[in-house]
Amino acid sequence: MSSTFGTLFRVTTFGESHCPGVGVVVDGCPPRMALTEGDIQPQLDRRRPGQSRLTTDRNEADRVQILSGVENGTTLGTPLALFVANRDVRPSDYKAMADIPRPSHADYTYQAKYGIRASSGGGRSSARETVGRVAAGAVAEKFLSERFGVSIVAWVEAVGSIRSEAVDIETVDRSRVDAAPVRCPDPAAAARMTERIQEIKEAGDSAGGVVACVCRNVPAGWGEPVFDKMEACLARAMMSIPATKGFEIGSGFAGTRMQGSAHNDPFVWKAGGLGTKTNYSGGVQGGISNGEPIVFRVAFKPVATIGLSQQTVDFKGKPVTFTAKGRHDPCVVPRAVPIVEAMAALVLADLALRQGARP
């Protein structure tokens, strides 16, 4: 199903951007795990709109409710249903745009596919859908942390042409990431990124960027060749996030400029086991985790909704001057950080269960 992700740890999200609410059903969460709304809410708080001057003005508390699958604070092994109400909805903002496919949005493609589309917001293509992913990801992350000691940290590596080069993947943590609203743990780069996003917002335009992520303490052996390789699953997960346009793992595209003698990761003995001297592979070899940190990056395009007028056509081909309404981020990457972490957690939890199911 198009709204379902995963094999053994399986999630199905539901809801549109301006309907009564959004959420997710999680099937495959192990039983007897302590779980309350308090375990899920912190990541939703990091994703929610209206959290800083760098984000959309839409103000949603995004308080999660656990509707099923938990009793007395303990998971039952039955499906978890997690729900978040939409409170600050303004469908009237979109009435004037009903006959115009917005540039670089999914209005035209959804209409072409279904013959109908959500009349306000982006419907299922809206980033509002990611509320369910983040809620489910928080559950997956708790399972991974308690069972395997896995930690997942993402951060903003670039906004437009401003790039951070001073992040230590061995020590970076969420407290450092969240020290600045732009969620870049490099203070000097964060200051420049913040200034740039404010300039873009005041100009009525938008900017893209890159989110980097490291998954530490992932055991060697996770990943299902040949079509469910670790990097293939991560790529599919990340490219399903709204506004994504690129994915790379380890050395990524920069590795194509290296020679094999420099790019290879020689094995060394570390703490009583095999490890690698370098990590150009990004923690994955042959589609299977090798025990090193899994490092990848996700590229996000500039937000499609901007305040500037644009020349386009309506659904009948008539030229129009289009000026968007609604409330949107000038740059999505600060709020995309917990979404990237959530999707990484969902991939790793599913692969962990699949590895555990092997005879």
Describe this structure in words.
The mean pLDDT is 94. The protein is globular, with a radius of gyration of 21 Å. The chain has a single domain (4-356), classed as Chorismate synthase, AroC fold. Helix content is 27%, strand content 23%. β14 (284-285) and β15 form a beta hairpin. α1 (37-47) packs across α8 (333-356) and α6 (230-239) runs antiparallel to α8. 43% of the residues are buried. The protein contains eight helices and 18 strands. It has a five-stranded antiparallel β-sheet, covered by helices on one side. With 359 residues, the chain is of the alpha+beta class.
Strand portion: 15-25%
Uncertain runs with pLDDT below 50, 5 residues or more? none
| CATH homologous superfamily designation | Chorismate synthase AroC
The CATH top-level class label: Alpha Beta
Query: How many distinct folded domains?
Result: 1
Name the assembly state: single chain
Largest sheet: number of strands, sense, barrel closure:
5 strands, antiparallel
Put simply, the count of helices is 8
Helix content: 25-40%
Counted beta strands: 18
Principal-axis shape equals globular
CATH-level-2 architecture: 4-Layer Sandwich
Return Rg in Å. Answer: 21 Å
Distance between the termini: 28 Å
**Overall pLDDT confidence:** 94
What's the order of the H and E elements?
A: EEEHEEEEHHEEHHEHEHEEEEEEEH
Q: What topology, given as strand order, has the largest sheet?
A: 1-2-3-7-4
Q: Any idea of the CATH topology?
A: Chorismate synthase, AroC fold
Structural class: alpha+beta
